[in-house]
Amino acid sequence: MAVAVCAVTVTVGVVVHQITYSREVSDARAAAQRQLADAARTYARNGTLVRGACLDSPRVPAELRELTRRGRQGTDFGSGPDGPGMWAARPVGDRMLCVHLGLREEIRSLRELDITMAVAGLLGVALVVPLGAVSAERLARRLRSAADTALTIADGDLDARINAAPRPGDEIADISAAVDSMAAALQQRLHSEQRFTADVAHELRTPLTGLVTSAELLPPGKPTGFVQDRVRALHVLVEDLLEVARLDAGAEQADLAPCPLGELIPACVAHTEHRATVCVTRDATVRTDPRRVERILTNLVSNAYRHGRPPVTVTVDQVRVTVRDHGPGFPKSLLAEGPQRFRTGAPERGRGQGLGLTIAKAQAQLIGADLVLDNAPGGGAQATLVLPAQD
């Protein structure tokens, strides 16, 4: 806006200056020619020079002097006895009759006009730019508020709203209302999916419990072992679904307490079904929920054995707990988009992602920790749990 105002001011100033200058030059040229005509008549009648006329003045511009040598008359701008002005000259016999019309006042008036336009332009810029800045800041503040709310919604807070007051012809208010409507629709759909997942898992839990009991009563044998294994896997899946539903609904609460990681992590790893090497580089005391840390480590170690290759190592370095395997590493899609529920199409990891990493991520958020997934420089996948340090 400042550039536009300055450009308009300069353009108007230049146009006015040129128009005024052209008019002054045109008037001066006409006045000088009239004065020259009067001087020529007087000189032809009695051989005398009127006031302001002279013969063969050395101050006459060279181009005008050359024009009179060719027997023609003309005018030209140049310096004279009265300062800068308009010369008019014509040949009289073998001599040059010339007059000079001083334009000192006209030039001073033109300079004053230029200064007046410059001051008016600066005042206009000084007035318009702050008003434009205030207006632009108001618009920018509303746009930033809408953008911040949209980012908050994208981060998972579907309760965030812009709540802009509707105004006729206000496009920003229309955008804000559209974002609020989108967030409300997403929230309603997500809650419907969460309720559906919880209801399905809850309804499956009762018959599945009976199925687990019935499978335990089957006679020993290879088919029985296969059925029992599949029933246990189905039971674990249903329990995971219920856990995900509770985490999504915000029904879980963390029980935080001071915990030394040098003691907590080895105990958690010992409770898993897999063997993993624990290395405590530097110990630290954190404020966390031991049960949920154990749940996170169980999922991470199980995921490392299921999709990677041993050996699996768990390293404690102050508040950072890293679980690493020596398999092909995490898929690029998982690193770019994060854990996805039941996502398939991961041939480099062998099978779909299931719910293990999703639950680990949600449990980490619940205790205020951060779960970072990456591939180790030497090969293999590594998941780093960064716990909040004790104040």
From TrEMBL:
All residue ranges annotated as the Histidine kinase domain in the record: 199-391
MF term (GO), any: kinase activity
Subcellular location, principal: membrane
Compartments where located: Cell membrane
Annotated catalysed reactions: ATP + protein L-histidine = ADP + protein N-phospho-L-histidine
Keyword Cytoplasm among record annotations: no
PANTHER family to which the protein is assigned, alphabetical: SENSOR HISTIDINE KINASE TRCS, SENSOR HISTIDINE KINASE YKOH
Protein name (Swiss-Prot/TrEMBL): histidine kinase
